[in-house]
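Need tokens for this chain, all 151 residues.
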Amino acid sequence: MNRKYLELTRLIERLHRRFIDVLKTELNRIGVKNINGVQALLLINIGDEEIVIRDLVERGYYLGSNVSYNIKKLTDLGYLDQERSAHDRRSVTLRLTEKALEVVRRMRELQSNNAEAFSKRGAGPEAIEEVCETLRILERTWADYINYGPD
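Here are the structure tokens for all 151 residues:
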């Protein structure tokens, strides 16, 4: 079991890196050369929402300094609009610009195409749900370890 668990954790890490590479490849294909895969994923995760920077970090998507750098860069490049809260000047709300919404639209098309290709390779809805449930259990296991320590 230990060897399989180690393989699973390594596979998760490799899959994340590969997914970022897929996003970067698609950005290059559509002619968007000024952002990277991580920044594209940030835009995808914001989507149509208005979101406070703190919420991105609290949802566990990004580390603090990493998100700050990427938000500044995306704002400077015209992909994000920022608005400070009138009530709490430390709180900044983000929303995508039209330029970013177009990138997100193209990335969602990519995801749809990849889902179809994945399905053609034999990964049906039941198999995907089983993998997702297993990964949710792993996430809860890790969260419990962080919050409560070892059993």
